[in-house]
Structure formats: structure tokens, C-alpha cells
Write a structure and sequence with these properties.
By secondary structure, the chain is α/β, with parallel strands linked by helices. It has 28 helices and 16 strands. A six-stranded antiparallel β-sheet has the order 3-4-5-6-10-11, with helices on one face. Strand 13, helix 7 and strand 14 form a beta-alpha-beta unit.
Length: 623
Amino acid sequence: MTNTLAHRGPDEMGRWSDDEHGIAFGHSRLRIIDLSPNASQPMGNEDGSVLVCYNGEIYNFQELRRRLEESGHRFRSHSDTEVLVHLYEEKGERLVEDLNGMFAFAIWDAPARRLTLARDRLGVKPLVYTIRGDRLVFASEIRALLEDEAIPRDIDMEALYLYLTFNYIPAPYTILRGIRKLEPGTLLVVEPERNGGLRIEQYRYWEPEASAERQIFDAEEAKERVRALFGNAVGLRMVADVPLGAFLSGGVDSTLITAKMAERASRVRTFTVGYEDIPAYDERRYARLVADRFDTDHEEIVLTSTEVQRLIPEVLARMDEPFGDSSLIPSFVVSRAIREHATVALSGDGGDEVFGGYSKYRGEVWAQKLGCLPGWRVLRGLTERLPESRGSAWLNRVRMAKRFVAGIDADQIERHLHWMTMAWTGSARSVLTQGAFRALAAQSGDDATDLPRRLIGELFGAGERFDATNRVLYVDLRYVLPYDMLAKVDAASMYNSLEVRSPFVDYRMVELGLRIPGSMKVGLFDGKAILKEAFSDVLPREVLSRGKAGFGVPVGEWIRDGLRDMVQQVLAPKRLQEQGLIRPEYVEELLALHLSRRRDCFWELWNLVVLESWCSNWLAEVA
């Protein structure tokens, strides 16, 4: 199991076991803080009664260490890992309340015969597990669990349907029925029962506060707090004993990170990926402008379409469950390139979800306005006649406008669900074979196709304490951010042994963001307003006036060209029939529409390419 995770930590392998209690830990280490053997894992306290196996970084470990030393604890390393051991001795499972970081850890308390599994508040680091009788197995990735031949490889049909709907699989689901993801901000405490079996307690330990009296209605106070806390979040993430850098796209979020890093370091290393033959996705001009402004040691990684396409089979082979966000490809490419120069990189992930950067948030503001006006439905008739494509900026705006107009008259839950899901949401009978649909109904009941709305509806219910805009942001912070954006970054970076740290997902930034009224962040024509105003003296004019740019590559165009043969091979009717999940006739119709440019079906096609590739790689025995 440990060997399968060597890409996450290639520097050192550590193993420990206790046959008396029937427990074993394995750890693959990426050396970041304290490079000496003293910081090796699994790590125990002085008498070995408490042991930890841990992935991530505790950013406030120096503050916690000082406090623990004052209480009499003695340290033998300078690592953040050892803080977990001694903090557990002080507080037990409540140690998570004091942690600011990204983490997934297991702590074994031998005297109590208690195992505690925990995941950070926002879900930056993954943790999967399976329980079979009196046996629990856990790991950072599914591939490690599958080294246990007793774990079956049966597809979870609800997870499959959620993947087809969202393009990713949310916790607690995984693609395999017997394996679960630990949800963000959650603890799992396991103890053996006296008569055999396991006693398991699972609960959430964090929920962002939102009491009305704590809302920040004064804009100047909000800006002051954003400036102070963001600077602190960046500074905490710059602590490392290895080379450090930053992703720099030239957008607002990465520019702010670069600016704050430049205040704290004599020379900051920044990295940008540029595409020689894909000008619409080349951000080098903006990144170079920012790098010059803050005098960074700037590296431009220039690629071609051919080079990126050549990496796609490798990316697909690395996935241990289907993940259909195609921006995983450029994330993988840039992580591999940066790893040649640095071991840790800061990124701007989370800025859009915390401060309202995506166009769908402005769409919600527009929907609240237009939904009250008579005659707006005329827009739907007009937009339905327009062509759409992701291949050009103008046609992509048309595509987004059509999705927006189609959701105006729905309630807020249905509207947001429409904007965040695939085009075929609710049409499982069209996509799945009869056998697959029967299996879904048998597992889930007659309301199987209502599962996505039910899950999103529960989050909207939990977010009722927020205003309309913050309610949408809360849903995405609990759903899209951990299961899509952060899952993508962790996979792409750790495949390449690169640690990525994201200041915007500091839980204090999230709590602060939700205390600021939505109207201060998102308007009819712009998002992230309070963030931009707070740092108007730092952000170059060109960055402030630049529209929101997605991080991606033109997979839709490649499917019509360089990837056409690969896509047709992966989605060949005979292959689909053998897998027995997706109707070949439906795929043939999608391909015909896409190749003829009658409709842009890139999202659906790529979703299915990833699914079928995963089936071929993982439903047979792993080599």
C-alpha cells in the first residue's frame, strides 16, 4: 500500500505495526519541514503510546509548539508532525480545533485502543477508507486500498450517477461501493467492541459561523480585515525548508499571492504556463506584467498542443476514480514543470468561491432582478437560436448566456444545480443502459435521479442563515471547492510530488468571507469587489480590468482534431457494450453533434472518455 503512494512522498518510506492490537501504519514522505530523519513518520511520543501518520501541513505549528513546550512537552524534531502527537496528548480528538492547515491524519492511542481519523476543514487533503466487519483500512488514495485483494471492485451506481451529473464524485461517495471518502471537517473515531466488531463515531467538527451580530456591514472594516488576514495566511504558507514558488496566471488571486510573497521575501519565484499555438489560453502577457511589477524570478513554461495531448493517456491512467474536469490536464502539466524547480508552490485556489469570482454568482444576482420582471422569457427564445462553442471567446459567452437564461425561472436550488451540472442532468434513462439504470434503481430506489438535487438542497438548507449570494458561495465552498477544485489540485500536484498551498482556503479567510454581505462581493457586472477594493493599490490596472479567465486547454477542439481517433477508440460501440454502463447510441449522437459543430458536447464526451478509461484500467485486476 505504501509503495503505491510513492508519488505523494518519494523521499522516504516508513512503516510501523503492532501485532498485539492488530494495527499498522505506512507512510510515504515528501520532505518539507525538518528534512532530517528526526521528522520521519509514522511518529510517536516519548513512550510510543501515541502514534501519528499524517499528510499535509500545519501552518500554525510554531505557535502550537511554543504553547506545548510551555506545558512541559519536549520535542526531538522541528517538524509540524510532532505537534500533532503532543497536542493529542493534551486535548485528545479535540486537537483539530486548534489546527490551521491542510491535513489528513490517523492517530493511534494505544492505551485507549482508539484510532482517530481526521480531515481538514475545507478538504484540501484526501482520506479514503473501507470497513469490512471488524476491519478498517484507510489511505490517501483508492489505489492503495485496492492492494487489499479482499476489497471488491463493485461500482457504486449512485456515485456513477453523481459523476455523470457533476463531473466529479462528492464525499462520502467513491466510484467503488465499499469505499468511502471522509468528508471535509470531519472526524472518524474507531474503537474495538468487546464482543468483536468496531464501534465507529463520525461527526463534523467545523461549520463556519454566521450569526447576524458578527456580520461586517462596514466596507472599510471589511477591507481592513481582508488585507490583514490575507497577508497572514500567505506568510504562514511560506514556511518551508525546500525551494518555494508560486503559480502566476496574471489573474487577481495569483497576483495578490505574488504581491504578498514579495513583501516577505527578497526574491520570489513565479511560474506560468504558456501555449505556443493556443493563444486564447496563453496567459504569459499578464503574468509577465505582474512578475515585472514585483520583480520576481519568473519562469515561463512554454508548451504546444501536441506536447499536452501526448500527456493525456498518462493523466487518464493515473486516475483511481473518474474525474471529468478537463482542467486536470493543464494542472498536471504545470505541476510537473514546476516540480523541476520547486517542491512547494502557492496557488490562488478558493479565491473565486470565497469572494464570488465566477460568472454564475453574477448570474444569481441577475436572476434575482430579472425574475421579477415581465417579458424576460423572450430572452430564452432568442438565445436558443444562437450557435455555441467553447472554441471561441464569443461563442463561449453565448453558451454561458444560454445556460443562464435557461435557469432564471427556477427556484434558487434548481437554478444553481442547473448551472453546476452536466447538460443531461435528470436524464439517466437516456445515458445509462437499461441494465445500469435498473442497478441504479435497485441501489437507490425510485428517486435515484433526484439524488443530486437532494444533496444540493440539503446544503442550501444548511446555508439558510446566509444572504442569497453567500448561500450560493456556501454551497460551492462545501461542494464544488473540495470535490472538484481542491481534488484536482491535490491529484495533479501530488502525482508529481509537488505540494500546493492555497491561502484563500485558510479556514479563517472562509469564515471572514461569509461574514461579508454578498452585495459587497458580487454585483451585476463584477465579482470579488471587496477583494479588489482592498488591494486596489497593489493590483495592476491591467489585472483589475481583465475579465475572468478559466484555466484550461481546448479539449473540445482537440476532440475534432488531434484527439479524435483516441476518443472514437475509447468510446467505440463494442467497448461500451462490453462495459455495459453507457448506451452506445447516445454516444454516437453526441459525437455526431460535436464533430459537425451543431452543438458543443465537449463536456459530456470528455466525461465519458474519462469514465470508460477508468473502467478499462481499474475494473480488471491491477497489474
